[in-house]
Each structure stands twice: as C-alpha cells, then as structure tokens.
Amino acid sequence: MMKTEELKLTREWDKVFPKSEKVDHKKVTFVNHFGITLAADMYVPKNAEGKLPAIAVSGPFGACKEQSSGLYAQTIAERGFLTIAFDPSFTGESGGFPRAMHSPDFDVEDFQAAVDFLSVQDTVDPERIGIIGICGWGGMALQTACIDTRIKATVTSTMYDMSRVAGNGYFDAADNEEARHQMRLSINAQRTKDYKNGDYALRGGVVDPLPEDSPYFVKDYYAYYKTPRGYHSRSLNSNNGWTVNTHTSLMNMRLFTYSKEIRSAVLMIHGEKAHSCYMSRDAYANMVDGSTYADNKELYIIPGASHTDLYDGGDKDAIPFNKIEAFMKENLK
What we know:
Oligomer: single chain
Structural class: alpha/beta
Shape: globular
Number of helices: 10
CATH topology of the domain at 23-161 and 255-331: Rossmann fold
Helix content: 25-40%
Order of helices and strands: EEEHEHEHEHHHHEHEHH
Low-confidence stretches: none
C-alpha cells in the first residue's frame, strides 16, 4: 500500500520570480516508489478546458522549486500546459530522511513518480506528458527518458551529466585512477566520521564569500544563488549544500547507457558560453550516433548564453521559451 507523509507546505507565494496572473497555482503532493512524499507547485492556465498536455519540471541540482524550475513551469503553463515543478526527495519541501541526500535511482524515480501523478489527473491527457530537467536534473530527465515510455517529449536545459562530473571532475580534468582513488579515500573517511558523530557533514553550497580568483562559472553561480536574484532559504546551493558523501553512487556508474534507444522526442538546450556545454554536446552526439531514432532529437545552442543564463534568462532573456513551447506542442499533440 502506498502511504504518504504529512508535509508542512508554505502557502504564501515565496518564489524568486513574480506570480503570473495568467495561471492558477496550488500546492500538490505525490508519493514515489520508495515511499517518499514529494511536494510540488502546480500551474494551470486560467479558464483551461478539457484534458491538457502536462509537463513535470525539476532542477537545477541543489535548487528548489521556488527557483528556476518554478519559473519554467509557470511560464510554460501560461502557454497552455498543465505543469508541476517539484522538489526532489530529501530536499526542499519534499519528504525523505536524512536531508540533503540523493542517489541517481531516487532522482529518476522522482521524475517517474511525477509522471505517475500527472497520468491520473482528471485534467490531464495521459498520452501527452513531457518532462523538463534543468542543470543536473537535465541529466536525470534524459536518464528517465531512457526508461519511461509514457514520456512523449523531454527538454534538457543547461544540462549537467552528474555522473561524469563525479567520476572525472570538471572538464574531465580528474579522469584518472589516482584522482578517483583519492576521492574514494576522502569520502569513505567522511562516512566513518559521520557514523561516529551520528550526523552527516555538509559540503557547503555555493562558496561565500566569493574569492576574487574564482572561475567565471563559480561567479555565475554566486550571482544567482547568493543574491536576491535567486537566493532561497530552502535551496541547498544557496545555503549549506549536499552532504559530503552524497555523490558516491554517481562515481560508480554512468548515466545515458541506453540513450540511443530513446524513441520519444528530445530537445537539448545549452548556452554557447556555458562551462558545461561540452556535456550536452557529448550526450547529444552519443544519443544520436548510430541511433534509429535520431530524427526527433535536437541540440539547440543559445549564442552568448552562460550556464546560469538558462536558470532565469540572466540579463539576456536567454531561455528560449518559444522554442520549448513549439517543441512540446509538436510532440504532445
């Protein structure tokens, strides 16, 4: 039997973006197969009639639904879709203990649970469901598309391949046995400390104060997560971050193993100047090279855009919502 836990949900509007008058908004909950109750914001076009196409949104990795995913969900709802933006397990307003943990199997299950929920809503057409994943949750969205045939269209935005970063480091700079061994030593030593202390050490969110010599992408993260532009009290990246040992399973696996077998439509969006752009370029190439199903796959690069420009548009209005709308309408018809 599926059991739900009672969550304490904030009822006032506490997003980092203004509320739209074009949609109705409410809080909803649903349970995943691990028994964790997830919290989500549902956005529905005002005066909508009949069964609507629906989209589940999550990300970035370490963010909360009051940040980028909520902005995407609300904006797409303005264009005729029923949408939900959800907090992943162990984060935000969603359930699960211990807090600030994650594992890729939970991450994929969360997206599938969102599809479960949407599929049984009276106002949703279960044959027209899509998903959008941002940053690290773009990778999890693509991974979910590999296995969930109910998903008819997937959008990844400024995607991170978290398994590649965990195993190889940024830009594959630590893609060697010794670097991985040292990381394992560090993580496993921390596990011993955590068990002795009876608690889980946190790695910290975006660095604060920001060192002057920080890489440009760290400065971009700071400008979003640590300023009024994007700060939120429930965001891991805005505050104390994930647990130190949370990436262990990602080091020992790789996402997208069967991406060539995705038959549904996929649109991968990335900023030309994003430090992470190589991840989408490579994942796209791997997905379509030799695939029978390449015709409905697209890599869309935004000129001049950085990684975080696709969180909220930056100062460039960089998120291609018209492109996303057209893609979803074409593939959820």
